[in-house]
Specification:
By secondary structure, the chain is α/β, with parallel strands linked by helices. The chain has helices spanning 4-7, 11-14, 30-35, 54-59, 67-77, 99-114, 118-121, 131-141, 153-165, 175-244, 259-270, 287-293; strands spanning 20-21, 41-48, 81-85, 89-96, 126-129, 252-255, 276-280, 297-299. It is built from twelve helices and eight strands. It starts with a helix and ends with a strand.
Length: 301
């Protein structure tokens, strides 16, 4: 069962978080020591792309194949916990009745396991305790603490880390840690689902915009065709006037009842030309064209 305090952490609260350097936790950190023994405290010690250069992150990285051995070593030195290790972070999550001692032992584990000088590693490490540990893991699982904000790969890496720590051949992880990871993974899934929904909506909007642009382009093309037909029709009438003079007393035959034919017919009608005969290639109602220009039309096979 997840700890109630963990489930109340909201996404807006996760946006801003300050890292606590391990060097700030020393023998004078009396508050943590005085709290020792009253309950289990959630702890995290680690380094990531914000706190350490890539060379240092590589030196403390733990491969997927080596994770089971590292967890066994952690259990002997600190207690049962979870190790998240990727190219951008290595973090130890554990519980302790004495948070001061638990943080120092976790930091020592990272240096001992990799054979590194503790003082060399110390400046790059950070820690969190209790609510700040929960907030940090939620940020990690939701991609808010990633180099690429909101990336989805980290959720699978957190899930794999939890699966390795809760493997049947290992001792049970403390319930408070189990509740923490359960809540973080569920929140991470919700965030990724929301991101996927947002991307789908954006894709749909882009498709609608593309469709609208296509429709506008089609409309402009149709308008261009109409203007072209009008220009051709007008040119045809002017050319006829130049060739035969006044058209009012001429017998005129328009072949074709298409758009250009309509334009020519209307232009001739305005000039008072008559009679006008329209020859069409298919059998269609006679009224459609002739009535449009006020003249008779004839079907022609």
């Amino acid at each position: 069962m997840a700890d109630p305090g963990i489930n109340t952490i909201g996404i807006p609260e996760l946006i801003n978080q300050q890292y606590s350097p391990i060097s700030s936790w020393n023998e004078n950190s009396g508050k943590a020591s005085r709290r020792a023994g009253d309950r289990d405290h959630l702890l995290i010690v680690g380094l990531n792309h914000n706190s350490a250069p890539s060379e240092t992150r590589e030196r403390v990285s733990i491969s997927k194949e080596g994770l089971a051995g590292a967890l066994s070593h952690l259990r002997g030195q600190v207690g049962n916990g979870v190790i998240i290790s990727t190219c951008n972070r290595t973090e130890i999550y554990c519980t302790s009745r004495d948070p001061h001692q638990g943080i120092l032992l976790s930091a020592r584990f990272l240096s001992d396991y990799h054979g590194l000088d503790p003082e060399m590693l110390r400046p790059y490490l950070y820690f969190h305790a209790d609510q700040e540990t929960a907030r940090h893991l939620f940020r990690v699982a939701t991609g808010l603490d990633s180099m690429v904000l909101g990336e989805s790969q980290i959720l699978g890496q957190v899930r794999d880390a939890w699966a390795a720590a809760s493997a049947p051949n290992l001792q049970a992880v403390p319930p408070i840690l189990s509740g923490l990871f359960d809540g973080a993974l569920r929140t991470g899934r919700r965030v990724q689902e929301a991101i996927a929904t947002g991307r789908h909506a954006l894709s749909t909007g882009r498709h609608a915009l593309s469709t609208g642009r296509h429709a506008l382009s089609t409309g402009r093309h149709a308008l261009s065709i109409g203007r072209h037909a009008l220009s051709i029709g007008g040119d045809a009438v002017r050319l006829a006037q130049q060739s035969v003079g006044c058209l009012e007393d001429k017998n005129i035959l328009i072949i074709g009842a298409g758009e250009v034919g309509h334009v020519v017919g209307r232009a001739l009608n305005e000039l008072g030309a008559e009679p006008i005969t329209i020859a069409k290639s298919h059998l269609r109602p006679r009224t459609s064209f002739g009535s449009a220009i006020g003249r008779k039309s004839g079907d022609n096979d």
